[in-house]
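Re: that chain you flagged

S.,

Sorry for the slow reply, it's been a week of failed gels. I finally had a moment to sit down with the sequence you sent. For the record, here it is as I used it:
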Amino acid sequence: TGGFFDPARVTSADSGDVWVVYTNDPAGSSDIRAARRRAGQPAFDASIALASGPALQSAPDLEVGADGKLHAVWIDERDGRRVYYGRFTD
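Prediction finished late last night. Pasting the structure tokens below so you have them in one place:
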């Protein structure tokens, strides 16, 4: 994760899937990534990038809607410090 002040966040869907969203910091540029553990499975699927780029991204959080879509928010500093929202599907 991004560190002590930027922990991973975990939530579950009505389907029984478990999602985790976290800050990944490869070579100094923070990206927001998410991974899903499908209901009944022992391990998480490969993570997916929700937000990536040269600017610092941090403090992600997520929720899964009744329609199964992943709703995520995070702080992004590409143009000042702003909160971004994204809605994602499989």
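What I noticed first: The mean pLDDT is 88.

Talk soon,
D.
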